[in-house]
Task: inverse folding
């Protein structure tokens, strides 16, 4: 499938934004260390309120660590992400300083870091798929994450495998999704329902 024929931008943008999508067809081919470090390097340079940089990434690529991740990811997601050679917990720090003052932008900034990571992964020839289907409390327990942090998402990272088999349910979902038109989320001057 040619993604650029399936997805069309209404305005001129770099094609990387249309090409990147969240397939579930992972190869179990390992991700090279230099590529993995490059995508985390891209996340490092995401914008951050007052430069607090609340994002943290806990990743797994060894069998034992991947199995720990599988223990808190929902069964429907494990079905396809078990082939991914890298799983990442995206974590954000709730506080901004040693005194424990809250960082009201922690999720926003961590989401920006995930966006940078995802685009760089695509540029490096890798597939990323973010997941919200996991037990957040169990993830914190298994990964030894303190209450000063929240686990925002889990990401599968790896190479695409067009021949990978999926359940009938997931195969039906294996289509690049489109996005809402600008008029549905862009408002000038004031918000409208």
Result:
């Amino acid at each position: 499938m040619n993604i650029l024929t399936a997805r069309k931008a209404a305005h001129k943008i770099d094609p990387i934004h249309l090409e990147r999508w969240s397939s579930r067809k992972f190869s179990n081919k390992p991700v090279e260390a230099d590529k993995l470090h490059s995508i985390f390097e891209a996340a490092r340079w995401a914008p951050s309120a007052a430069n607090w940089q609340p994002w943290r990434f806990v990743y797994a690529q060894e069998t034992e660590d991947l199995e720990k991740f599988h223990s808190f990811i929902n069964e429907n997601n494990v079905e396809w992400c078990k082939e991914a050679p890298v799983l990442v917990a995206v974590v954000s720090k709730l506080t901004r300083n040693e005194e424990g003052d809250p960082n009201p932008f922690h999720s926003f900034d961590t989401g920006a870091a995930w966006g940078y990571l995802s685009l760089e992964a695509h540029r490096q020839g890798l597939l990323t798929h973010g997941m919200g289907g996991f037990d957040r409390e169990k993830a914190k327990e298994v990964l030894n994450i303190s209450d000063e942090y929240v686990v925002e998402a889990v990401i599968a990272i790896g190479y695409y495998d067009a021949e990978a088999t999926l359940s009938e349910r997931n195969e039906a979902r294996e289509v690049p999704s489109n996005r809402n038109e600008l008029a549905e989320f862009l408002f000038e001057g004031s918000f409208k329902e």
